[in-house]
What does this fold into?
Amino acid sequence: MDKGWLKDRLSACSDIEARPTKFSIGHRGGACLQFPEETKESVEAGMRMGAGILECDVAFTSDRELVCRHDQCDLHRTTNIVATELGANDITLAEFKSLCGKMDGFNASATAPEHFLHGTPAWRTDLYATCGTVLSHKEFLELVDSHGRDFTTELKQPRVPMPFDGNYTQELYAQQVVEEYRAAGIDPSRVWLQSFFLADVVYWLRADPAFGKQAVLLDQSGDLPGTFPDAVANLSFYKDAGVQIVAPPLQYLVALGKDGDYIPSTYAATARNLGLRILTWSLERSGPLVQAVAAGDYYYSTIANGTHRDGDMYRLVDVLSRQVGVEGIFSDWSATVTYYANCFGLF
It folds into this structure.
C-alpha cells in the first residue's frame, strides 16, 4: 500500500482479535480464491475468516431440488462431472451429491476428460480441491445456522424453458427458496434473498414481505457500452417498484477523481439520494491487480488508471465503506473484508 493514514490505521489493527461481521459477505461460500466454490469447505473457510453472511447460489435439479451451484450449466467447470458417467443435463439431487467440487476452470485444449478438469488460474490453487463437498440448499442452511451466521441465497436464472416440466414456474421456484428457510426455522431478519431478475424481488416483496423486505436486486444493467447512464436512471424505477437494496458490481460505485483518487460514482450518489441500501460484489476475484488491470479486468474497469498495486484493494474497500456507504462487500477471500471491518468497527 502507499504510505498514508489508511495504511497506518490498518497496520495498527494487526493484533486485534477479529470477530465475524455482516460487512463481510462470503461470495460463493467466501473462500473460493483457494477452495472450490459453493462447497462445504468454502463455506467453512469463509466462516473461519469472519464472514457474517454466507452465500449459496441456488439452482434446481431435474427432480426439483435446490442445490448450491452458480449456474445450471457450470458443472463441467466446477465439478468432476466430465470424469464420471453422468451427463451435465437433467441431473438429479442424488447424482449431484455424488460429484466432487473443484476449482472453477477447464482446459479448452484437452483431448481427454482428466485433462479437461485442469485450468485453475495460476493465482488460485488446487491445494484444497481434492474433492469439495457439494451442498443442497437445505444442507447449506443447516451448516450456516449451526454457526449462527446469516444467509444470502441468490436465485439463479434457469437455463431451461420455464415453466419447467410443464408446471414448475419461476414463482414456484422463488417460493421454494423461502419455504426451505421457513422449514428450517430461520428468522427472515437473518436472510438476504438475491436475484438479477426484478420480477423475483417484486414477487418476494408481494408474496412474502417478511423475507422480501431484505431482498436484494443484483444490477448488471450498465455493462454494455453506452448503457451505464440508463443503469443510473433505472435506480428510481427500482425504488418505485419497492426495492430496498441494490447490489451492483464494484466498478459501478467508483470513479477516478482528478488526482487519481477513487471517488463515489454517479450511480453511488444516485442510489444514496434515493435512499437505497447498497451491497457490492466481488472483491478478491481479479487476481494480482497489476496483471488484472493490464488485462482489462471487469471489476476495476472504472478505476484502472488509478490502480497500481495490490494494496489499492484496500483503498477501494475504504471508499466503498466510508464514502459510498455500502453495508456489505461480497468477497472470494473473506478475511480481506473482515480485517477492514474489524479495524473500523463495522459489525
Q: What stands out?
A: Residues 107 and 116 are 5 Å apart (CA to CA).
